Amino acid sequence: MKIDTKLENRKLSEIPFWAYTDESVYKKELERLFYNDHWCYVGLEVEVQNPGDFKNTLVGERSVVMVRDDEGSINVVENVCAHKGMKFCREKHGKIKDFICPYHQWSYDLKGNLEGVPLLRGMKKDGKVQGGMPKTFKKSAHGLTKLKVAIRGGAVFASFNHDIESLEDYIGEELLGYYDRVFSGRPLKVLGYNKQRIPGNWKLMLENIKDPYHPGLLHTWFVTFGLWRSDNESELKMDKHFRHAAMITTRGAGGKDDQTTNVSSFKGNMELNDKRFLDVKYEDWWNGPTAVMLTLFPSVIIQQQVNSLSTRHIQPNGKGSFDFVWTHFGFEDDSEEMTERRLIQANLFGPAGFVSADDGEAIQFVQEGCQQKPDDSVAIIKMGGIEIDKHTDHMVSETLIRGMYDYWSKKMEG
Amino acid sequence: MIDFELYQQVQDFYQDYAMSIDSEQWDKWIDFFVEDCVYKIQSRDNFDNNFPLSALALSSKGMLKDRIYGITETIYHEHYYQTHVVSTPRILKVTENHIESEARYAVFRTKQDGIAEVYNVGRYIDRLVRVDGKLLIESRRCIFDNEMILNSMIYPI
């Protein structure tokens, strides 16, 4: 089979199944998207509050450590010792003075510079020097691989490419306001993590959050309670490269109308026994929309769904699988009541979520279908036309997915 | 005081609870709880580090009912069997009406393809209350070791 990653414009509306199932495509994605030219999410500043605090995380498949150094800067280094390649940091988070690889005790400062090599000058015995590294060995040439780091409003991004554009240019002026809306610099408070391994291609998750067509159909709660459905006031926006996107919506009244009574997932008689699940309280910083779902290609989704906030980190581990790591957060100055509200609404999301659990299921079964079909099969992405609309003021469109594949095919070409 | 009768009662309670879930008798599952109850499925990492977030956190019998409506009517998913293997309980504290106890559990999941997987492993941390001679749950926290959930978690643990 010949893999041609170029998708002609007229074909942006037809995504070949091999985009999800081909091993060489996946390898190329790691190299070109996750390890080059893209800012990847690594965490929140508040996760490494004090000097020495670290968090073990991933960029693509590569293990990296985010750490705050003694000067207060945040550094991200690759978790591979420069000596023998050992993945030395084994804890998920903690506090350290320096990095020490246990195998031969090579030590690095918190910026990743090699500091100590045991027996560097050998061992003196009977007036002779035994062993030691060659005179030409320079510690400065053997640090940990350092990533470039960008922080904005409390979220931290890293890139293996040090010549990458600024994070602000990367996000793009079209979407930066939606990013800043959540990450305004108001101190954050981590509420905890949920992790799930989804047996599907990583792009299917980005597509899922660029697809406003499905939530009002698949997700009963969204339709029935008006959180997300086709008759809500909505906008779809992209950056100029079409790689990132925002789905923006304002909650409608819920209940019946001509469109939704035909949707099989709509449950007209459904009433919650405990209304606290949807005890939504308007927050001033929303400035209107009750939900903004921001996809920052290729690694993260930033979620505001009413009072529930999270980052959803995509960590691919093969062409047909990725880990999806949810970090739920609120603000440091939230009242106890607001924290409680965010935690109760968190029940809608994550691997057990009233809404999100079925996304994982749907992605798994799409992957299964794509794997069994012949190589020339395609997904039909024609809702709302076959072109890319830079700005759409409704939800009945798959334009954001077409946009992403326009960008993807340009990066993957050749 | 822990006598054999009490121990036996708590042991039966744990086994009956597991059976209600494994046999998908959801109404029976709900009836193991008092009205004003807490039910959480939380990763050990969140629990140990005092992060309040759970994979699922229900704090009333009404929420339990909403969850059952969710798994039977609204959450799209492929059906799977669960089999719980629950250890003998450790009874930590007994007062006139309350019992604090723990047990270890392993849950095996079997989907349509018939291969059983280790799905969730952890411990129950419980506060039980005696109502009319019967034990009911005031608080059950399922604290699981395997932080990485195998895609989705639909049914209770």
TrEMBL record, chain A:
Cofactor(s) needed: Fe cation
UniProt xrefs under SUPFAM superfamilies: Bet v1-like (SSF55961), ISP domain (SSF50022)
Keyword Nucleotidyltransferase listed: no
Gene3D superfamilies: Naphthalene 1,2-dioxygenase Alpha Subunit, Chain A, domain 1, Rieske [2Fe-2S] iron-sulphur domain
Keyword Protein transport: no
Rieske domain mapped to chain residues: 41-158
Keywords: 2Fe-2S, Iron, Iron-sulfur, Metal-binding, Oxidoreductase
Protein name according to UniProt: Biphenyl 2,3-dioxygenase
Organism of this sequence: Shewanella inventionis
Upper lineage: Bacteria, Pseudomonadati, Pseudomonadota, Gammaproteobacteria, Alteromonadales
From TrEMBL, chain B:
Keywords per UniProt: Aromatic hydrocarbons catabolism, Dioxygenase, Oxidoreductase
A Pfam family reported for this protein in Swiss-Prot or TrEMBL: SnoaL_4
Gene Ontology MF term list: dioxygenase activity
Highest rank taxon of the organism: Bacteria
Residue ranges annotated for the SnoaL-like domain, each copy included: 5-141
Alphabetized CDD domains for the sequence: ring_hydroxylating_dioxygenases_beta
UniProt xrefs under InterPro entries: NTF2-like_dom_sf (IPR032710), Rng_hydr_dOase-bsu (IPR000391), SnoaL-like (IPR037401)
Protein family: Belongs to the bacterial ring-hydroxylating dioxygenase beta subunit family.
Descriptive protein name: Ring-hydroxylating dioxygenase subunit beta
Source organism of the structure: Shewanella inventionis
